[in-house]
Write a sequence for this structure.
């Protein structure tokens, strides 16, 4: 295990010894879960490939929620979704802040109770990977499996793999479950990581967990078709992942792509004649309205297994036409045909939000970026802004701040003109009088908007440099770094010490989004983490959720999935009941707005 790893060569400035670094990032997934009673055991097969998109482990299978279910951290996985093990607890905070060399028990993933009574040839298998896009576990770190016996009431070591200090491909673990102590009703297993408990260090990715009877040591082949990568970003050709809605799609900022390319795999044993798959079915929805749906697609049959394959989906010609306001695009792409394996990994979903901001990132940070060892360090990102007019002044910047041991992250927002020569920041156009404090958001990838003291007219420039100056004296401002997205050559990133600028050597894109014309609607909303003025019951709930507000004012109720998708929104009386019978079991976010107050609370559907 390494302390504060540098993923590229460290850059040291002779005068101030400023260091550009990227550190492990701690995801934010607050939840506390229970476990099923031993009388409520699960009969094998027990199968989870983490493709259900919950953000946390499926509570129908797992009794805790410390690991992060995601597509951000793995490399070259076989299907969408993995479970990532690190040194962060249920709330996305380090188990022991500041402890980067404590190679002890960190993340744990524990099954609910299983009934193995009377079964034979029971095997547990899963795929595992060191590091992926995270920090590699060292030789003192390990991933282990332990079995729980309802006879002895003890957990016993069953399997383990050591860290190597390097990233690697996915491997397969095959573990027999045998003996009278375990082949009982009330058996459990857990996968656990031993590593640093000070944050997202010593990363392991786990996929395709399967436990079943009548298996053998060679029964490790996964046989099914599945999407191998998440939905591609719905982006323009100029590398922006979002742009202000009022900009014409034909201008220099973004052009509508003609196709989106999807990656899938036919895994395992080739069936007779191959699987006949209907590839490319999709729905394209804008602001809740169906723009186009396609279900009549070519049937593709081949025997090219265990390799990435692709197919294209044409973007509807009527998509993203003349927009009259902020627009949210939601897409769903799936395949069907020959039935095999899990259904949840046969569908992927995408989302594009066009509001008033520019973004270069995909919304999820795998690392944290900061400039260490110098006070007054600065970071600037170039943005091409030629399509913005004088009415589209810069109003502020939204950041995905990442905090570690403390929240004392002070900064100022700054804007620079292009240099007279060379590709670097030039003359300072604006620096905020206000000193802001970096605040971490509620969920992974949350960007927190900060309004400028006064709007800045940048219409005289075809590009500007936008960033921040670190005013902290005791700590470093860290920004989320999206390692999946490299900066375009036309829009590099620089950093400096107050006197000199240096080109960034760190790969990836900062989650830093300038916004224009108007402030985000939620900037004026006060946030309350503890909804003491509301009663929400029952929680967990099965068929209905009751909400009671102490005030007589109307409320706006929203239900969101953990990935941020809006599932329900209604303006209603302060006392109301919501029918949740149609929702799948799992964890959701309830968001309530009343006057200028905003509350959020997580609730469980059983």
């Amino acid at each position: 295990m390494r302390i504060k790893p540098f993923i590229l060569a460290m850059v040291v400035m002779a005068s101030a010894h400023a260091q550009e670094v990227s550190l492990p990032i701690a995801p934010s997934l607050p939840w506390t879960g229970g476990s099923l009673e031993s009388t409520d055991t699960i009969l094998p097969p027990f199968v989870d490939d983490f493709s259900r998109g919950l953000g946390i482990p499926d509570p129908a299978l797992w009794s805790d929620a410390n690991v992060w279910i995601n597509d951000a951290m793995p490399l070259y996985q076989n299907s969408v979704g993995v479970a990532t093990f690190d040194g962060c607890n249920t709330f996305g905070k380090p188990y022991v802040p500041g402890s980067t060399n404590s190679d002890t028990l960190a993340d744990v993933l524990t099954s609910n109770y299983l009934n193995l009574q009377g079964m034979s040839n029971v095997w547990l298998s899963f795929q595992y990977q060191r590091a992926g896009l995270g920090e590699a576990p060292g030789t003192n770190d390990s991933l282990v499996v332990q079995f729980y016996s309802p006879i002895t009431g003890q957990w016993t070591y069953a399997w383990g793999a050591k860290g190597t200090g390097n990233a690697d491909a996915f491997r397969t673990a095959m573990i027999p479950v045998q003996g009278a102590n375990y082949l009982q009703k009330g058996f459990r297993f857990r996968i656990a990581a031993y590593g640093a408990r000070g944050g997202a260090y010593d990363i392991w990715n786990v996929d395709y967990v399967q436990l079943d009877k009548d298996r053998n040591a060679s029964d490790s082949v996964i046989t099914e078709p599945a999407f191998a990568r998440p939905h591609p970003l719905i982006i323009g050709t100029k590398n922006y992942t979002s742009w202000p809605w009022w900009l014409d799609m034909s201008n220099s900022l973004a052009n509508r792509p003609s196709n989106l390319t999807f990656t899938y795999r036919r895994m395992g044993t080739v069936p007779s004649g191959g699987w006949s798959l209907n590839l490319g079915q999709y729905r394209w929805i804008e602001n809740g309205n169906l723009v186009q749906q396609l279900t009549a697609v070519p049937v593709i049959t081949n025997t090219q297994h265990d390799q990435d394959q692709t197919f294209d989906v044409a973007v509807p010609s009527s998509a993203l036409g003349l927009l009259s306001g902020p627009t949210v695009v939601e897409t769903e792409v799936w395949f069907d045909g020959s039935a095999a394996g899990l259904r949840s990994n046969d569908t992927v979903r995408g989302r594009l939000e066009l509001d008033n901001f520019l973004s270069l990132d995909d919304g999820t940070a795998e690392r944290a970026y900061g400039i260490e060892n110098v006070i007054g360090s600065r970071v600037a990102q170039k943005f091409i802004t030629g399509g913005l007019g004088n009415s589209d002044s810069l109003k502020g910047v939204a950041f995905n701040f990442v905090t570690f041991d403390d929240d004392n992250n002070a900064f100022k927002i700054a804007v620079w003109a292009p240099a007279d020569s060379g590709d670097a920041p030039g003359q300072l156009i604006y620096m905020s009088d206000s000193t802001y404090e970096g605040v971490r958001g509620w969920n992974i990838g949350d960007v927190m908007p900060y309004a400028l003291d006064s709007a800045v007219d940048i219409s005289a420039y075809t590009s500007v440099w936008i960033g921040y100056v670190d005013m902290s004296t005791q700590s470093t401002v860290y920004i989320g770094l999206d390692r999946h997205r490299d900066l375009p050559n036309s829009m590099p990133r620089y950093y400096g010490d107050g006197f000199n600028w240096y080109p960034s050597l760190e790969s990836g894109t900062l989650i830093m989004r300038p916004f224009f014309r108007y402030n985000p609607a939620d900037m004026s909303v006060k946030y309350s983490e503890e909804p003491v003025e509301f009663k929400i019951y029952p929680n967990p709930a099965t068929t209905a959720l009751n909400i009671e507000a102490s005030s007589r004012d109307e409320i706006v109720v929203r239900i969101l999935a953990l990935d941020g998708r809006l599932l329900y929104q209604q303006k209603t009386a302060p006392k109301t009941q919501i029918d949740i019978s149609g929702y799948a079991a799992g964890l959701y976010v309830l968001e309530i707005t009343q006057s200028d107050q905003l509350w959020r609370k997580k609730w469980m559907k059983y």
